[in-house]
Amino acid sequence: MEKFLSFDDIKKSLENRETDCKAIVNYYLNNIKTKAHLNAFVEVYEESALQQAAQVDSKIASGKAGKLAGMVIGIKDVLVYRDHEVNASSKILDGFVSQFTATAIQRLIEEDAIIIGRLNCDEFGMGSSNENSVHGKVLNAADENRVPGGSSGGSAVAVQANLCTVSLGTDTGGSVRQPAAFTGLIGIKPTYSRVSRWGLIAYASSFDTIGVFSRNVKDNALVMEIMAGPDNFDSTASKKPVPHYSELLHFDKRAKIAYLKETLESPALQQEIKANTLAVLEKLKQEGHEVEEVQFPLLKYVLPTYYILTTAEASSNLSRFDGVKYGYRSPNVHNLESMYKKTRSEGFGEEVKRRIMLGTFVLSASYYDAYFTKAQKVRRLIKEYTENLLSKYDYIVLPTTPSTAFKFGEHSNDPVAMYLEDLFTVQASVSGVPSLSLPNGTDSKGLPIGIQIMANSFKEAELYAFGNYLMDLNSN
Amino acid sequence: MKVDLNTVKKIAHLARLEFDEAGAERMQRDMTQILDWEEQLNEVDTDGIEPLTTMSSEVNVLREDKVGEHLPHDKGLLNAPQKDSDYFRVPKVLE
Predict the structure, then answer these.
(1) For chain B, which terminal residue's Cβ has fewer other Cβ atoms within 10 angstroms, N or C?
(2) Whole domain around residue B15: which residue ranges?
(3) Catalytic residue of the set A76, A189, A218, A459
(4) Is position B16 within any domain?
(5) Residues A167, A165: Cα–Cα separation, whole Å
(6) With an 8 Å Cβ cutoff, are A361 and B11 in contact?
(7) Out of A152, A167, A175, A238, which one is annotated catalytic?
(8) B12 assigned to some structural domain
């Protein structure tokens, strides 16, 4: 029988002394072994997790345990953890062992969370299907012939298959929300700069965020409130105070809700997803909320804007991987330049090389203004338009993805078709606003459907409360 | 924008990457397709719009220059593909 499906379950079992942290970790370790074929975990930290469990058990016995005592967390293979290997699912970081711990993870550990292992993902977070990984593909537990979404595919499947209580992913253009939708989970992308990026291996620095996968809103909110906040190691991290999201989940207001005409009219949108989204909007109306259709004429420009800017930032961020100080170095080198070129050409996968090339192109002297500066201008328009909508409405509701989980290899030969997977998630990433994906039923094949809610910057508390309300509304 | 093979080679050199002939042709095709798609942005009127260059609303602050934790020598060299007792080693720079 499945156990420990929420942190409240775990806490109750610990309080009643029916279990201890060691037993909880062993329960998940056993699940990980049983479901190893899903390929969610890249490495299981059996030894250090059991050590942590013993320490937390003795803290519980002496009444000194932190807020997350008993919670078992898996981390995406782009977040560093001291004395543990991390690869960003790339050959170029083969064998790399981190010398420090990401701030977000450090804060969870300080509240006695147990880190059970690292999770498969697309290389450097670049992908929407988890098929671009040196560790191999991850199977969606809802249908093992289908992708779990990406780039945080392993993080999604780890919670979907009950291999840990919650997991961390990262979301640059939808990499938490899209896999959450494909696996029937709750996934958040917080406001840009809400969580320190120290210890997150960079993909596109003006977009990257750390997000959370969970089965219920409360666990998600609790983990986020502990990770968020200022950090001396990341000067972009916001100094705004962090509310206790998990204690602010009560929702009883009359909300103003907008939905975007262009998203529901998109030819790419699967009919069943449209129907389920409209059903939610109808329920909200019946509950007395103000629900209005608004226009977002810039929708078709968000993905091109996103790809110009993120490939540019990626080409710059990934220039550090040169084979000199860490990671893979090609054995076939005869001088310094060939060391750089062979190391990078052998170490990076196809999609990563494609993005480095495109990013280098749009940043090159002859094309900088026509592509990069242009995209920065359109980004301002998209951000201002979105913020303006969110100053008139409390929430924007839209589908998380155009389709449910697709089959392996379905988009492999067409990069633009794969990029279109993120059609509905990139608006929040380009604008920097927080966005939450919630499960919203299944299609005729039984595949999970997601619904997405955006709120204005730093409105995570309002987002979680509304998300929690919507989950209750949908289960009635 | 039609990308030619020479451009692929030039950009590859700037990015310190290299492709064999088939790889360069594939890259030429993919880059052309993706850049064509990105050029949709030309339909958007951006006259008089300032480029958005930073997403964080935090401003830079000066901090006290204090000695903090730093990596000891051996730890700094721990992940090196090739090293001696004091330094990272790379192939000869000058022939």
Answers:
(1) C
(2) 5-41
(3) A76
(4) yes
(5) 7
(6) yes
(7) A175
(8) yes
Are A345 and A332 a contacting pair, CB within 8 Å?
no
Please state the φ and ψ torsions of residue A42, each to the nearest 5 degrees.
-90, -35
Give which of B5, B32, B38, B82 to mutate to test A binding, by max A Cβ within 10 Å: B38
Does the beta-carbon distance from A379 to B44 stay under 8 Å?
Answer: no
> What is the number of CB-based contacts under 8 A between chain A and chain B?
155
ipTM, interface predicted TM-score of the complex = 0.96
- pLDDT single digits (tens) A84-101: 999 999 999 999 999 999
Greatest Cα-to-Cα distance within chain B, rounded to the nearest angstrom = 59
Q: Does the residue B28 lie in any domain?
A: yes
* Domains, chain A, ordered by start: 7-247 (3.90.1300.10)
Number of structural domains chain B divides into: 1
Active-site residue identified among A90, A133, A151, A193:
A151
> Which residues from chain B sit within 8 angstroms of residue A209, using beta carbons?
none
Give the CATH number of the domain where residue B20 resides: 1.10.20
CB A296 within 8 A of CB A260: yes
- Whether the Cβ atoms of residue A281 and residue A257 lie closer than 8 Å to each other: yes
Q: Is the pTM of this model over 0.95?
A: yes
Encode pLDDT of B48-86 as tens digits. Answer: 999 999 998 888 878 889 998 888 999 999 999 999 989
Q: Please give, rounded to a whole number of angstroms, the shortest distance from the CA of B34 to a CA of chain A.
A: 7
Task: Spell out where A388-456 has E strands.
Answer: 395-399, 435-442, 448-454
The three-state secondary structure class of A186 is strand
Residue A475 known to be catalytic: no
**Cβ-based contacts of A351 with chain B (< 8 Å):** none
Domain contains B18: yes
A43 sits in which H/E element:
strand A41-44
